Amino acid sequence: MPAEDRRISKSPWACGIVAGLVVFVAGAAFGEGRKPLAPASLGGSGTAILEPGEESPGGMATTTVGISTADAFSQLSANMPFARELDFKIGNGIFRRNWVSAPSSTKSSDGLGPLYNARACQACHLKDGRGHPPRGTEPEDRSISILLRLSVPPETEADRTLIASGRASAIGEPTYGGQLQELGIQGHAGEGRMVVTYEEMPVTLADGEIVNLRKPTYHIADLGYGPMHPRTMISPRLTPQMIGLGLLEAIPEADILAREDPDDKDGDGISGRANRVWSVENGALMLGRFGWKAGQPTVKQQAAEAFAADIGIGSPLVPHGYGDCTPAQKLCREAPHGGRGAKGSGEEINAKLLDLVAFYARNLAVPARRTPDAPDVLRGKQIFHDIGCASCHVPSHKTGEQSPDEHLRGQTIWPYTDLLLHDMGDGLADGRPEGRADGRKWRTAPLWGIGLTEIVNGHTFFLHDGRARNLTEAILWHDGEARKARDAFASLTAEDRRRLIAFVNSL
C-alpha cells in the first residue's frame, strides 16, 4: 500500500447484510427478542401513551427556547441558577474563540497548533450540533467536523503495559500521533488529507422498497511527514451534538453497570459492556461515558483532550503546548507555544478557563420534544419498543448526586441510551480497539434532539462517520447485537416504518 495514499476499506460485508435482509423479509418472522412496553406505558388499545415527564427529556433542565431554530442546541439549562449564567456565557465565549499561533500580542488566545484540525471548538461542533462528512472528494470540500483517529497495535512491553493498566486506550501512530491533523501554522505542513469515497449498496425491504446504503472507503493522501506505520488503524469520527452532556455525566455509575451483560447470560442477544478509561484528575480508571467508543470519563477531560488534539492547546489535564505532535515531529515539538504556567509549562488555557468551558458543555440544554403525543408518534414509540430498539437505546434514567452542578442532580431524563458498548457488526466495524471497545463495538448514541439535526445543522447525516443520509439508512446499518431489531424494522410496513421514524424525530 503506497505510503502517500493509505486506504482504509471496510471488509466486503455488503453481500452478507443484503442477503440477510432479503432472507429475513422473504419469510422469517420476528419473535424472540421482543421487549414490549410495560403495562403502565400502554393505553387501552395497546398503543403507547405519553409517560409523565417524557415531553421534557432533560428533566427540569429542559429548554423550550428556540427549539424550532438553528439555535436549538445552544441554550442553557432551564433550571440553572441566575448566578451561574455569566459562567455559561464566558464558557461559550471560550468555546467560540479563534486561537492564534504563538508568540502573539493576543496573549489570552495564542498557542494554536503547531498542527491542528480547527482553530475553535465551535468550528467542529457546528452550532453545538452534529458534524458532517465531506460532501465530495475535492480538497476544497474538506470538512473539519470529521477527523481520523490513528493507532497501531501495541508492539513493545511498555505499550502492552500501558494498555493493560488502562493508562492508555490506544497506542498512537509513531509519527502522526493519535489523529490526523490536516492543518499547520506557518512553517509547519499539515499531516495529510482525508479523502472519502462511497459505494452505493441497494437493500430491498419486505414491501419491495429499495434503500441505497453508502459504504465508505477512507484514504489519506499527501502525507506530510513520511510513511505511516504499516499496521496503522484508522477510524473516522464525526463530531456529535453536545446537548445533555452534564446530565449523562450525572447518571450513577452503578445504574449503568447494572445493565452490563458481556456474556449475554440472559440470552436476549444483547451483551452491553462498559468501557473503563483513565481519569487524569483521579489517577484511576473510571467509567467511560463520552465519545463514540465511550473513551472519556468526564466532560472536562473530553474538553481537555479535544483542546490538545484538535487545536493544539495545552491545559492542566494535558499540559503540553505542542498538542498531538510526536517526538518524530521535532520541529513541531520545539515550536513556540503559548504556555503561561510554570517554567516549561505548556498550559495555554488555565484551570479556571477550562472549568468554564466544561461548565458550558455540561449545561447545553436538551430541547423539549415536539408533538410527543401525536397518534403516529405514540404508535411509533410502541413499535420502537416492540422490535427491540429500547434494549440498547434505554429510554430513561435518573441523575444522581455526583454532578458538580447541583441543578442537574435528581432529574428524570430521557436520553435513549445505556452508555454501554455493543457489537454493531462488520459493516460498522472500524477494526480499531479503544480501551475495552474492540473494533466492532460502539457506545449506544443518545437519541434526544436527533430530530432537530436538520434544523440546526442543515443535514441528516448520522452514525459515527455520517455515512447514513437519514434515519432509515442509519437503522439499516445496524447489525451484530442490533440485527434482530434491524431485521424487524425491515419487515415493517411502509406506514409503520414511517411511524417509527416519526417517533425518533420527535425525541
Short description:
This protein is an alpha+beta fold.
Q: What helical percentage do the residues reach?
A: 10-25%
Number of strands: 13
Give the overall pLDDT as a whole number.
Answer: 90
Overall number of domains: 1
Radius of gyration based on Cα positions = 22 Å
Per DSSP, the total helix count is 14
Q: Judging from the principal axes of the Cα atoms, what is the shape?
A: globular
Order of strands across the main sheet: 1-6-5
Q: Spans with pLDDT under 50 lasting ≥5 residues?
A: 1-16, 22-36
- Given helix and strand content, the structural type is alpha+beta
Q: H/E series, N to C?
A: EHHEHEHEEEEHHEEHHHHEEEEHHHH
What is the CA–CA distance across the termini?
Answer: 44 Å
Beta-strand portion reads: 5-15%
For the report, how would you describe the main beta sheet?
3 strands, antiparallel
Oligomer: single chain
